[in-house]
Design goal:
- The structure is a single chain.
- This protein is mainly alpha-helical.
- The chain has 15 helices and no strands.
- Helix 5 packs antiparallel against helix 7.
- The longest helix is centred in the C-terminal third of the chain and has 31 residues.
Length: 343
């Protein structure tokens, strides 16, 4: 495939991570995401503490904690929220470990959504509901973790912001239930349906809400609901989701997953795997271009809106945060052992 064209410093965290001849190599070579590689300097302070917390709460077993350490899961939080101060980075790291734990459980969960993993996912949605009381100590660790961390995080949020964060968390949990059903039924969604679903299943909804938390700067509500900001979030969600699809395609081929853009295009367009990878790269590149345009439009919207200087600064910080997420997720994917091919 030739030299990698991602904008990564040769000595950065992704150096040497791309391997030719694998889907990880295909993904890493042609993907172009502009912006500098950033890493939160608090990672060293937070990583060991977060993993110890996950073992102490029961979120991770000895085996899954070893996997989380090997995959540098906490480092993802440092890549995508590079400006969070250490206390907030620690909370973000806990939620990141929770996200990976839920994702892995769903990937290996039973087909019957009413049993095991399905019941646990349902308990999570109840724990996040406004009607929920204290999460019982008998609840599964992944449910108790929400009862511990989410109230602390939302305590720093305004009411509307906190409500959308919880709604986005619930919507993401629901997509994990969908994943179990898709895999069990061998259902391959249409490309159009998948794009909308992937914007939720990629976790960017609630993770983008945490950009404001990480940077201690709440976005004005009228800006968040503006068409320009929605287009920014959607373009970024597509770039992140399809980056993940390219890096995880080998893993998902082996596990029987059907919710991956590469596999969906292969199925519906009658492509070879390599052709589907190339087509996904083209779709990805178009959305990177759309992200640039959406960023420009967001700035224009903000300047045309009656905002204070502090609110204008919050808009700029949010846009920077979205771009840091897009680039940081690519850097994490290149460096992490999570997406190594089986065997």
């Amino acid at each position: 495939m030739g030299k990698a064209t991602v904008f990564v410093d040769s000595g950065g965290p992704a150096a040497g991570a791309v391997r030719s001849g694998t889907a990880k190599g295909w993904a890493g070579g042609p993907l172009r995401v502009p912006g500098p590689s950033l890493l939160n300097p608090g990672l060293r302070q937070v990583e060991e503490q977060a993993l110890a917390w996950a073992r102490r709460t029961g979120l991770l077993s000895a085996h899954t904690a070893e996997q989380a350490g090997r995959e540098r899961q906490v480092a993802m939080a440092a890549h995508v929220w590079p400006w969070a101060e250490p206390g907030r980075l620690a909370e973000l790291a806990r939620l990141t470990l929770w996200m990976f734990a839920v994702d892995d459980d769903s990937d290996s969960g039973p087909g019957d959504a009413s049993a095991g993993t399905g019941r646990e996912l349902e308990a999570m949605t109840r724990a996040l509901g406004a009607w929920a009381g204290t999460v019982p100590v008998s609840a599964a660790p992944a449910v108790r973790v929400l009862g511990e961390v989410v109230p602390r995080v939302t305590g720093a949020m305004g009411p509307a912001w906190g409500d959308r964060f919880r709604r986005h968390l619930v919507a993401w949990i629901r997509t994990n239930q969908d994943t179990i059903r898709f895999r069990t039924d061998r259902e391959v969604p249409s490309p159009e349906a998948y794009i909308a679903w992937r914007r939720v299943s990629g976790a960017t909804g609630w993770c983008f809400d945490l950009i404001e938390y990480a940077q201690e700067s709440e976005l004005p509500e009228r800006i968040w609901f503006s068409p320009a900001c929605r287009r920014l979030r959607e373009a970024a969600a597509d770039v992140i989701g399809w980056t993940n699809d390219l890096f995880s395609v080998e893993k998902e081929l082996s596990s029987g997953e059907t919710t991956n853009l590469v596999l969906i295009l292969r199925h519906h367009q009658g492509l070879t795997l390599r052709e589907a990878v190339d087509e996904t790269r083209l779709w990805h590149a178009r959305r990177v271009d759309a992200l640039r345009i959406a960023t420009r439009d967001l700035y224009a919207t903000a300047l045309a809106t009656d905002l204070t200087s502090a609110q204008l600064a919050a808009v700029c910080q949010y846009a920077d945060g979205v771009h840091a997420w897009v680039r940081g997720f690519l850097d994490f994917s290149l460096a992490s052992a999570r997406y190594s091919a089986p065997g």
